[in-house]
Amino acid sequence: MNVPLSMGVVLLAAAATAQAPPQFVLQAPAAITQNFVRISPADVDGDGDLDLFASRSSFPVTLVTLLRNDGAFGFTDVSATRLPAGLQGQTVTPFDCDGDGDLDAFCSGIPSTQTGTLLRNLGSGTFTVAATFPNLAPGGCVAADLDNDGDLDLALAASPLLGGLDRVLVNNGVGGFASGPSFPNASGSVGVSDFDGDGDLDLLYPSPRRLLRNNGGLSFTDVGATQLVLTTPVGLGNVACGDLDGDGDLDFVLSAVGGDVLVFDQGSTLVQGGFAPPQPNTTYLELADCDRDGDLDLLRSHPTGTISFARNDGHGTFVDDPSRLPLVPIFSTAVHAADLDGDGDPEVLSCYTGSQALLLRNRHVHLELGAALRGQNWNVELWSEPGYAAADGLGVLAVGLVRLAAPLPLPPFGDLWLDLNGALLVADSIPQSAGRRAFAFAIPAAPQLVGVGLNVQGLVGAGSGGLHLTALGIATIQ
């Protein structure tokens, strides 16, 4: 197979690789490998990719960092120019506080001073302090319209270790907040859903266990004793919210000492059910569709310093699948999931207090580029469902010299970045046994090729998720 590209690059062959490696691979950009304790993805500059707020431990304070995504899986620390100096916060919650279409942020309680800080986005990902709030011990925070007036309020959970009260901050519609109802005790985390289907949002605080039914007008009644049906003893901690069984309503996963608990919305009650494989005490929960099969999988971090991954069968029963994770120790006290490269599947971010954060690249739909050197072969790989595909898939690779000024959305396939005029297109199967197909290109030794950018994008078959475009890859000839 010899197919020329206009500037002399020649496709030599497409070869299947052998054994399939795990779905996730450690591939952390340098800016991410800091001592972060929490990470919050958000497109703060409106360019279509996810940037990262991160809380960095710098004893005795926890500083907030902003990492800007360049759209090609590269991150730059822009805190010095985009954030107020010395900004502190244990957890950052991105949300649009003032209805202007960009993402602002709330920095939950600062451990040293127990204050909260509201940041307003000036429109391009640069932030200024809009307000501060005293007496907020760090804990969970969820932005939601709790009073049905069309803007986002804040449900806060205080830290059990540092005291304080769980509470609500009420938005006045233009980004000003006033104290709303507060609740006894401190829970550490909070979940929000309309569990009773009456059109307003209710609150679930897992420890001590409280299910607060919204009566309208920011009046709440604790109905946990009758409408939160659990067979597991108290000792519940973190909470994650999502549709676990595909019935269109929101369910919960609660971490518990004796094993994590699944709670399903049954119309007017929340009832324990389903199955989550027993794991060591869970420190953090995250729900994400890691394999694009339409249901939410379960990621958990544990005090032993590990991450576990459990697949959802679509009905709220989970099966552990450690083969999808790298075969190396991953120390973790918090785990987050977000599509950082724009290919439709989420990466996994892991934080571990006192050590560097890690990033696991998801290769469910993936493009891997080797170095493009003059006079040598340049290797490109297309990935699809490595290690767990049910059958061979399709892979289409496009290589061109020009990319589009902005991505072209092609639902349901994703975003097309490559200008296909004059591009080299080649198709081949992706073997089920390996989950990847390798392509080799001969690059001439001509000196004038130095600095030429090769733009690459793939379209791969991904099981029940169908065909999907990979992220754009760029290799500069050296």
> What is the percent of helical residues?
under 10%
Unreliable residue runs: none
State the secondary-structure class: mainly beta
Looking across the biggest beta sheet, what order are the strands in? 1-2-38-33-32
How many alpha or pi helices?
2
Extended strand count: 41
Distance between the termini: 25 Å
Mean pLDDT value: 90
**Tell me about the biggest sheet?**
5 strands, antiparallel
Task: Describe the protein's topology.
Layout (H helix, E strand, L loop, with lengths): L2 E2 L5 E7 L7 E3 L9 E7 L8 E8 L2 E9 L5 E3 L1 H4 L9 E4 L8 E4 L8 E6 L5 E7 L7 E4 L8 E4 L9 E6 L5 E7 L7 E3 L8 E4 L4 E5 L5 E3 L1 H4 E2 L6 E7 L8 E6 L4 E5 L4 E3 L11 E5 L8 E6 L3 E7 L5 E3 L13 E5 L8 E5 L6 E5 L2 E5 L7 E8 L8 E8 L2 E8 L3 E5 L5 E7 L5 E7 L10 E9 L5 E3 L3 E4 L2
Parallel strand pairs: 20-24
Antiparallel strand pairs: 1-2, 2-38, 3-31, 4-5, 5-6, 6-7, 8-9, 9-10, 10-11, 12-13, 13-14, 14-15, 16-17, 17-18, 18-19, 21-22, 22-23, 23-24, 25-26, 26-27, 27-28, 29-30, 30-31, 32-33, 33-38, 34-37, 34-39, 35-36, 39-40, 39-41
Give an overview in words:
A five-stranded antiparallel beta sheet has the order 1-2-38-33-32, with no helix packed on it. It has 478 residues and is mostly beta strands. It is built from two helices and 41 strands. A hairpin with an 8-residue loop joins strand 21 and strand 22. 47% of the residues are buried.
